[in-house]
TrEMBL record:
Residue stretches making up the Erythromycin biosynthesis protein CIII-like C-terminal domain: 438-529
Protein's name in the database: Uncharacterized protein
Keyword field: Transferase
Ranges for region Disordered: 1-41, 78-108
Any one GO biological process: carbohydrate metabolic process
SUPFAM superfamilies listed in its UniProt record: UDP-Glycosyltransferase/glycogen phosphorylase
Length: 543
């Protein structure tokens, strides 16, 4: 286990007033729930994007926010952050680590801790952290997993109750629907006008309040007291770093979904930055057509755009719930990187090696796997279908809602028939499969992927990190049909590794390009690359 979980002394996120070691911070009284404190917050979203709404364009094919900015505009947005970080990163100065970090055996056994894992997202986001929680519980720690109420039974049953469940609020279905409508870092005009942004802000407030309750409330069943010594969270949680400041806990910010740590190796997965220096004779370093520079700057811009959308609700949470001072734009942007919070990326270094400019507080551990197949017995009709012909292709989009399920089902069936393939089609939250099974297509219910993917020839899905990991670990070529967020990033990584075709955005999918993707996935080259990658991943132990 490579995460740094030793409790740390209290610190401040406000870099202008960092306390000296051992000093105490004044703290006002804590209010446990401020979700409905301000009617204005519930009805109105405070977005300070300004002219960025006019300069930004969401590119449907790359699924990235495209920005064309000059040096003055970039420095106006993230100048202070760049002054803090860019020079050492871009010039390559400072600490250098190996391509991938490996855990080291410590002669000192860590003390028994109360560890809180906070996960916001879909079932696929939650599942890997159940595996991590079970490993921590085996090591003697008390582990609580705070996530959405919908996953309560899943957490308890999958962990054999070794991991406690705590409801932090929020509806993952509504969250996924919002992300499908607003796949970029800036919400669309339709969502701003319809009130969807305000609804999402209210849900964020509920989740933020839930993250604090998860740290200090007793177990809901046993009433055994709980106080978190260490916090592990995925990026969409947002509140964990602020709760850690208030409680003096060590916060280990883990990132399964995609890279959020600045690097010159590749750009932020959600930002396509073009630095405009046309018509200038004297071009500064930041404007030189150097991908290393623009790669690093893209992370500062992503942090800044994220903070613009969160700053009011985060600062209200800090003031009213945690009794902390509000953060300025400079303090709130890039705080995780500036404080060098331990950051574990839960993917295989065989797929994405650790960049050379990531420092020792950043680790690439390998995927977290939770085996749910041990006690699974397939229904008779599924077993019969699998035995009746060659291994089929799996097609499903998990927790992602689809705008037109009927049309999507028609595209899938048409492509499968055109490719002369067999397929297992999973309805999921997309509601696919409004038809009957046939000789070459079987409509799936809820089947564990770690069992199912052993019996298929290839997989086609939305590109969620967890589903991608299970498919690759089983050596299966992968077709990614991304809807939002990190999904296109994972599709590109799979394609770069040779284990599948280029990703096809969901709104660009048709019978012909899906048929071509199926044929490419089943080619000898893709099968061989996926098999090699699977062997490498199987040799790793992320937890």
């Amino acid at each position: 286990m490579s995460n740094n979980l030793v409790p740390a002394p209290p610190y401040s996120l406000i870099d202008e007033t960092l306390p000296e070691a051992g000093s105490s911070r004044p703290r006002s009284s804590i209010v446990l729930d401020d979700v409905n404190d301000s009617k204005e917050d519930d009805e109105e979203a405070d977005f300070a994007y300004g002219d960025l709404l006019l300069k930004a364009h969401f590119e449907k094919w790359t699924r990235k926010l495209k920005l064309d900015l000059n040096e003055q505009e970039i420095r106006g947005l993230v100048g202070e952050h760049l002054e803090d970080e860019t020079e050492s990163q871009v010039t390559g100065e400072g600490e250098r680590d190996s391509m991938a970090s490996t855990p080291t055996d410590s002669p000192i056994k860590p003390p028994r801790l109360n560890i809180l894992i906070l996960i916001v997202g879909s079932r696929g986001d939650v599942q890997p952290y159940i595996a991590l929680g079970m490993k921590l519980a085996e090591d003697g720690h008390r582990v609580r997993l705070g996530t959405h109420k919908e996953f309560r039974d899943f957490v308890r049953e999958a962990s054999g109750r070794k991991v406690e469940f705590f409801d932090i609020g929020g509806d993952p279905r509504e969250l996924m629907a919002y992300m499908v409508k607003n796949p970029g870092l800036i919400p669309g005009w339709k969502s701003l006008k319809s009130g969807d942004v305000g609804k999402n802000t209210k849900m964020l407030k509920e989740i933020l309040s839930g993250t604090f309750r998860a740290c200090v409330f007793p177990d809901l069943d046993t009433q055994i007291p709980f106080s978190a010594n260490a916090i592990i969270a995925n990026p969409p949680c947002f509140g964990h770093i602020h709760v850690a400041e208030a409680l003096g806990s060590d916060s280990c910010f883990t990132g399964l979904a995609m890279p959020w740590s600045p690097t010159t190796a590749f750009p932020h997965p959600l930002v396509d930055l073009h630095i405009n220096s046309k018509g200038k004779s004297n071009v500064s370093d930041i404007e030189k057509p150097d991908s290393h520079t623009s790669n690093y700057v893209s992370y500062a811009l992503a942090d800044h755009l994220t903070w613009l959308g969160l700053q009011r609700v985060i600062n209200n949470f800090r003031k009213k719930t945690l009794g902390l001072l509000p953060l300025s734009a400079h303090s709130g942007t890039g705080v995780v990187h500036r404080l060098k919070i331990p950051y574990t990326y839960c993917w295989s270094p065989a797929l994405i090696p650790k960049p050379k400019d990531w420092k020792s507080n950043i680790d690439v551990s390998g995927f977290y796997f939770l085996d749910l197949s041990t006690n699974y017995t397939p229904p008779v009709d599924l077993a019969r279908f699998l035995e009746s012909g060659p291994p089929p292709i799996y097609i499903g989009f998990g927790s992602v809602p689809v705008k037109d399920p009927k049309k999507m089902t028609e595209i899938i069936l048409g492509a499968v028939n055109k490719a002369g393939a067999r397929a297992l089609v999973s309805a999921g939250w997309a509601g696919l499969g409004a038809t009957k099974s046939s000789d070459n297509v079987f409509l799936l219910g809820n089947v564990p992927h770690d069992w199912l993917f052993k019996h298929v020839s290839a997989v086609c899905h939305h590109g969620g990190a967890g589903t991608t990991a299970i498919g690759l670990a089983n050596g299966r070529p992968t077709i990614v049909v991304p809807f939002f967020g990190d999904q296109v990033f994972w599709g590109n990584m799979v394609h770069r590794a040779g284990a599948g075709p280029e990703p096809i955005p969901a709104d660009k999918l048709d019978v012909y390009n899906l048929c071509a993707a199926i044929k490419e996935a089943l080619s000898e080259e893709s099968l061989d690359a996926a098999h090699r990658l699977g062997e490498w991943i199987q040799s790793e132990d992320g937890v």
